[in-house]
Write a structure and sequence with these properties.
581 residues; mainly alpha; 0% strand
Amino acid sequence: MIVSVFLLVVVLIIAWFFCRPFDKTLKKIKEENYSPTEDEIKKCLDTYRKLNILTISANFIGFFVGQVYMVWDGIRAGRAEYILIRAVLIVAQAVAFGGISCMSTVNGLDSLLAKPRQFLKIKSVGNLKKYRSMTLTSILTMTFFVTLTFMAINMICTLYGSFAMPDEGVWMKKGVVCFILSMLLAGYPFLVIIFGLTKRMRHASGVMEEIAQEGDLQHHIDITILDDFGVLTTSINEMIDKLSLMIRQLMESTDTVSYTSKIINASVFNSSNAIDEFSTMLEKINGNSSEQNNLVLEADKSISRLAKSIKVIREHLAEQSNSVATISSSVTQMTANIGSVAETAEKARGSAEVLTQKSEQGKQSIENAIKTMQEIQKSSAEVQEFVDIIKNLASQTNLLSMNAAIEAAHAGEYGQGFAVVAEEVRNLAESSAKSARNIQQHIQDMIVTIDNGVETINSAGDSFMDISRKVEETANFVGEISAAMEEQKIGAAETQQATINVVDAVHAVNDLAQTQTDDAIQVREFMRTVVKASESTLKAVQDGVISTMHLKESIQEVKDSATNNTQSVDVIEQQMGLFKV
């Protein structure tokens, strides 16, 4: 008895030393709301492992070594008779009871430490495989075989007692007591295991029910015993973590989908408005394109008419160029004729000046002759004849002068015949000079008879004065004709130059018309290309209108889908709001 008490005290002291690290950690957790580290959790779990070793060692020493010693000491001291079967049955019964005690103690300690281990907040046994206890199946199997062995040994002991005790009443009484005690002792380990398992299952069921009702995925099942149920609890906790992560990601995705759905709704709304505006614009563009196509066709027709007009202009310009060339030749010839007439007029003007001078000299001579004739009155008859001749010459000269004036008047347009008249005047002048010389000769011969011709000479002097005036007028007319011819010559030169300029201008216009014709052809080709492009553009715009209508219908479908999606997201958000992650 003393040895048993001593052994119990030693075991309790060792157990106290083993439990000190666990006790310190629990105290720190309770007082400071401390979260233990993984090393501290391992030290706390190592306490149970050490206590199991201590329990097994104590039961082995107490129920096997101690019982063997007690049987040996009783036989040695003579307190018991040495019977081998009896000694074996006693030791076997003690060992079986020790097994039940060991199993009950180990499972009892495991259940007793379950609540303190709950403060460690163990959620997984993945990193704690070293500290795992036996599987629940192994524990139940071992407990079953230990209790079965204990009951079998007790039954054998009861049979052995029936031979040792002839009193049937005593045997029956002790047999019933042995059966009841065996049943109680054999059932206790099972009750401990089942009670602990039921308690943990009830706790796990409560947590799962709380999660199911409140959706609080922040709760986990604390692992108190590292057995099969602990592994199952680890899987449940991992499932809760994964479910929490999935719900969290789903909530984030739902938020993203909700935000995206709002953006899609806004985008679809804006796109719908933009498509409406775009459709309106396309319809306007379609109308404008039709008008533009008509305008382009009209422009093409106008360009064609312009090309034809330019061609006609070129033909007219060619005719005009030929006409201007003919006019230029005529103007050149006219200029040459005017130059010739001007030269003739200039010569006539010189002759007229000489004639005027001669007339002046003749006038002086007549005056002198008058004076002389006064001395030669005797030759008046002959002088009268010569005077008559002079009168005739004067008359002819006067007539020719008039003809010259008339011809001079016409010389401004044609300039023909004036040279003949001028030649006749010159011949008459020479004839007059010759006659004058004859008159002078005859006067010398007829000085005596001149007195009779004084009156005639006076008359001749008056006539000569008239001739002189006419000659002077003729000279003036010839001068005016010469000046007019000079001006005509200058004007003709300017006209010729202007005609040359006109010819050059006509050629330049013809070249420009050719360039315009080429440009018109290019523009016409370009307009044909523009017509084709305009028709293609019109068709593309019409196709765009049709495509826009289809796109509008598609956007409306997207809008309806986005609205349904938003409603679905709202429902999902309401459902996700039930969870706490």
